[in-house]
Amino acid sequence: xxxxxxxxxxxxxxxxxxxxxxxxxxxxxxxxxxxxxxxxxxxxxxxxxxxxxxxxxxxxxxxxxxxxxxxxxxxxxxxxxxxxxxxxxxxxxxxxxxxxxxxxxxxxxxxxxxxxxxxxxxxxxxxxxxxxxxxxxxxxxxxxxxxxxxxxxxxxxxxxxxxxxxxxxxxxxxxxxxxxxxxxxxxxxxxxxxxxxxxxxxxxxxxxxxxxxxxxxxxxxxxxxxxxxxxxxxxxxxxxxxxxxxxxxxxxxxxxxxxxxxxxxxxxxxxxxxxxxxxxxxxxxxxxxxxxxxxxxxxxxxxxxxxxxxxxxxxxxxxxxxxxxxxxxxxxxxxxxxxxxxxxxxxxxxxxxxxxxxxxxxxxxxxxxxxxxxxxxxxxxxxxxxxxxxx
Length: 391
Hints:
Structural class: alpha+beta
Strand content: 25-35%
Largest sheet: 9 strands, mixed
Strand order of the largest sheet: 1-9-10-8-7-6-11-5-12
């Protein structure tokens, strides 16, 4: 039996594999009043609330949900931080940037919070992407090969270049897994536009979460004797004449999407072997390039990547009809789950209140699936060391 469906009423312990252990205060409730409202949650606080406006106004109280520990294993982009106060860890000192890079590459630790903050925004990735013109030419080559037509000398050279690129990617992927398997790497991400896989370590055990696996892809995994649990299934629109039983294993990205959990060591190894030799059945996707690999430590053919931070200083923000001035910081580029976790912990320790917003990459949204909570979590409020959904 290759899969087991988790029932709706089945509960599983949710643990953030990237959350550093820290002392937590006991929580009495998991829902609190919006910290921005004029109504206080704490009953022992007898201070009178002063309404800043003289005119009459209606105060709308929204409910906020505390999320502690914060669990979001998806990939993010377009990150924005907004605060009433200047960010204490932000600096323009080039020496700090250099020290942050040195600390990251040597896996060292500094007590300087600016160094710790800047170190968050580095990662390693393996990226092979072709230009639109190159992709178009490769699609023509793939079609000729499929129809068993003869390639020209130029087409042979381009196809040979693609094959060498593919071989480099395979070496990088296998070295990534080897580091992960031997404990030298805690986690890494296998990302495509159609689906994504998060490999991570939890309590010393190796796991993989596979999101957006279609019935066709699941059948391919079963054929390789890969054991998995199915957490969620999403049906997409289809005509009356279509059925899931008619899914073609050669087109694994149609009909529906599933989130798979793989924990068996042999199945994890088989999964890696499968994707090391796997070719995307969609010619256009295959021609665009190979799956992107993200990691916190270097591996074969990987490159060091830094996200771009931009300090906008004070910017205007309209809130409840008032014009306020807030400090704004943006981060461009794709951010990994461990980067988001480290950033939130940094804000918990060194800021009083920060609003965090971002965009979740679609093919990784299911990695954060948890019942009865919005998924994905794209807006957060960090206040007084606690984390809240900020909708």
